[in-house]
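All the exercises in this workshop are built on plain-text protein records. The record below serves as our worked example for the rest of this section.
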Amino acid sequence: MTTVEGIVLKERSVGEQDKFIDILTGENGVLEVSVKGARKINGKTGSSAQLLAYSRFCIDKRGNYLYLNSAEPIHIFYGLRDSLSKISLASYFAEVMRFCIKPEAQNGDILRLMLNCLHYLENSGRGESFLKALFEFRLMSEIGYMPDVVACRGCGVYEPEELFFCIRDGGFFCADCFENDSAADYIKVGLPVLSAVRHIVLADFDRLFNFRVSERTQEKLSALAEAYMLTHLERSFGTLDFYKSIMSDQKT
């Protein structure tokens, strides 16, 4: 029997009483675990094995399959369910994690990123757009797609007032050096956006959430982060489409 701490990214019903859950852990990546009797009224796992529950799981391995023996809740994130936009954004985070993180992948900072983003989201500690952009850029950096934000690739300037960021390769050119005709691969941003990206991808985790940007900078940062992530993962996410539809409805 193995004991792990992790957060449930997805649950899938099997038959009338059982289900499978995908658990994001720090030591073992994403694990698929069978939960017997999960849908019984008096099921012993209860809320500990529901979507977005952060719990301590005792798991048995039988052959090639994992089975949940017991679970103890650490934090359930009930507050996310008070807002449709919050639970939808959290579901987007979970879907991205399921796609990106493989079994046996060891990276405690990825679990920490998920938990911290959900904490701030649940408690309204930071804006949803801020958390979404931070999640997208930091996750990409953690899984090997860190953008090259040190200096202009043409002249080496560190703080250009205006720059063109390439979403395909992650580098940038200052306005004086930019001559690429493939403008579709580039997004024009200002220095405040570049500074925000640098903080997100380079800061120690203890300082990761310790910065703020203006509303205008946040708008550009959000567009850049989403485009960068979707381009490198080469796919779309249904949960993202749903979240964006909710936000669009709230604006009308």
About this structure: The chain has six helices and eight strands. The two ends are 52 Å apart (CA to CA).
